[in-house]
Amino acid sequence: MPSFKEVAEGVSLAIDGAGVLVIVLGLLVAATRFALYGRQAAEPYRQLRQDIGRGILLGLELLVAADIIRTVAVTPTLEGVLILGIIILIRTFLSMALQVELEGRWPWQRTKSPA
């Protein structure tokens, strides 16, 4: 019977794989959508960037979840937690930068209401 550590490692690897898969699928969907409908869109390049950004954001969230599981459940050392903190800071910065790029506002700003 597998130990908790082995199961947690397997789960974190599966979530890592899902994160990478989501990013790759996001790129493929964005490229396909751009190839099929790009010329019909009002701003095709902006739409492509937004589609790619959405895939990356979702993939980053899954990768962070896998890192948390791996660090807390598999190797709960002070060094591991510090490395996890740095990884989460970097990925959070990337996520926020992508969200600003996609939505044109910071996450804590209110949505602009149509006039």
Please give a structural write-up.
It is a single chain. The protein is an all-alpha fold. The protein has one domain (4-103). The protein has helices at residues 4-37, 44-74, 78-103. Helix 2 packs antiparallel against helix 3. The mean pLDDT is 84.
**Number of β-strand runs:** 0
Summed up, the helix count is 3
Residue stretches low in confidence (pLDDT < 50, at least 5 long) are none
Q: Main beta sheet: strand number and arrangement?
A: none
Radius of gyration: 18 Å
Terminus-to-terminus distance: 62 Å
Estimate percent helicity: over 70%
As for the number of domains, it is: 1
Strand content: under 5%
Mean pLDDT figure: 84
Secondary-structure element series = HHH
Class from secondary-structure proportions: mainly alpha
Shape: flat
List key phrases describing it.
115 residues; flat; mainly alpha; single chain
Give the topology.
Elements (H helix, E strand, L loop, with lengths): L3 H34 L6 H31 L3 H26 L12
Quick overview of this protein structure:
By secondary structure, the protein is mainly α.
